[in-house]
Amino acid sequence: MAAETHGGLAARLWQEAVRTLRVDGPLPARLLADAAALLTLLSLVLGLWDSTVAVALYALVLLGQTVVRLAPLRAPVQAGTAVTLLFAAWAAMLDAYQLIPWLDLMAHVVATGLLAAIVAAALLRGGWLRPGSTATSAVRTGQTLLTAGLGALLAVLWEVGEWFGHTLLDPAIQVGYEDTVGDLAAGVLGSLLAGLFLDRLVKDGPWP
């Protein structure tokens, strides 16, 4: 009886986890998000035979994809963000950023912008912030500046993480003045663009 009870509880927890983490939307978006998740898990397992940096990086990507699935983004945006995070990790591990310099900036523009949109939407829909004006233009300006500011913070944290990894884990992780400044500028640009189009990225709008 106890075994059946535990089995039923485990089944219910699994069903709830699947329901919570499911990407609701068009079938292509769902399949793309699920494929990105499976490939991230596979990359994480293979990373065990590679290096500590690989394990840490893919674990971070997997965490990011989980957050993306919980975020109130439109399904195509969720799928696109999941793919972007995995692509950025693969590019880093394959040294693609050294071969194609602009690829690093593009990754920072897209990834930082989408992550900033997630945080901004969470704050706005959670009721943490309320519009001080009923004017649509003022509200849009506020949410754009909020998203850009959050993206700037995320960009700084990203660069701190790269410095931490370079200093304590692997000197091969690229850091430097030009790289850092370029990445920060790209992250802020991506976040500003995400703020301008926040209504189109967030499901049912960013405001509750």
UniProtKB/TrEMBL annotation:
Keywords: Membrane, Transmembrane, Transmembrane helix. Signal peptide: none annotated. The chain crosses the membrane at residues 35-63, 75-93, 105-124, 145-164, 184-202. The keyword Cell inner membrane does not apply. The keyword Membrane applies. It comes from the Bacteria. This is DUF2238 domain-containing protein. It comes from Citricoccus alkalitolerans.
